[in-house]
Amino acid sequence: MSTPQPPRRFVITGGPSSGKEAVFTELHERGLPASTGEIAREIYRKHRDRLGRHLQVSDRREYSREVLEGFITEYCAHKAGDRFYNRGIPDGYGWDAFFGLGPYPELEEAARTYRYDTVFVLDALDDFTTADDVVWAREREITRVHQLIIQGYYDAGYRPIFVPVDSAPARVDFILAQISAPPATSHT
To answer: How much is the pTM?
Structure first.
């Protein structure tokens, strides 16, 4: 009887139109353990359906806390082996900054407590052709969110690995090549 491998957690993130959906589809097609859906998007849809409108300034902190809770639940549910996450806790820093909110104690505590082994940032695609009911950002907003997400990971003590624009299979190959080596030890 083999002993279970300790958990290794890998975040794949990036701003809107970075190609995460295609990368996660590829991970699933290869049978790799990965998030299904995107927690923040699912929670956003629930808020929008309940409110009958898009988030407004007064709704954003509640939304942020719900997303954080979802990320923590997903993190804690993983007990052994590798797993790829569609966004991670430090994404909250970027989105909150974009919404004009500062970090709050629960986010800072979670970013210190729940650590990921490696963070992959998908470089933004050159064009945006997906018709998604949630994406509202203009090109400069997409770029700004992407930059703020990256900064959030640096602020949380990570050194992200940037995944160049390519086909989804090539991006997954790149990611898998980075994690085949033993995880690096961080001294943060």
So the answer is: 0.85
